[in-house]
Amino acid sequence: MKKSSDDPLSRRERQAMEVLFRLGEATAGQVQEGLPDLPSYSATRALLGVLVDKGLAKVSKDAKQHVYAPAQSAKRAGKSALQRVMSTFFGGSPGNLVAHLLDPTERKLPPEELAKIKALLEAHEGRNRRP
Predict the structure, then answer these.
(1) Does the reported pTM lie above 0.90?
(2) Class of domain 11-70
(3) 50: burial class by Cβ within 10 Å (0-12, 13-18, 19+)?
(4) What is the pLDDT of residues 4-20, one digit of tens each?
(5) What are the structural domain ranges in the chain?
């Protein structure tokens, strides 16, 4: 039974997805090699099976091996995850999320990051002004 892709990921599941996003597609052995604290091959196969069941990864058979790939792009998965974080912790408000990121008591952003954020806001504002 496929679970919703909105299910939270465990640390190990996130690590496996990071490997799949980085490689694009991979065998269980390649995913295993990309994981920290090298799990057993059978544990890696089980982990990939969970990701397939959750609808986050897809599997195909290539020659004699199963090949795994992300079910959606990293950008789309990131957007979905960010929406969940924003909804859960920031009342669904992008403003609250940005305010938290810019809170000087939390961290000091490097000038290049601030410049990037300003440029993105200006571009967004420009798009909103056009008829």
Answers:
(1) no
(2) mainly alpha
(3) middle
(4) 445 578 999 999 999 99
(5) 11-70, 90-129
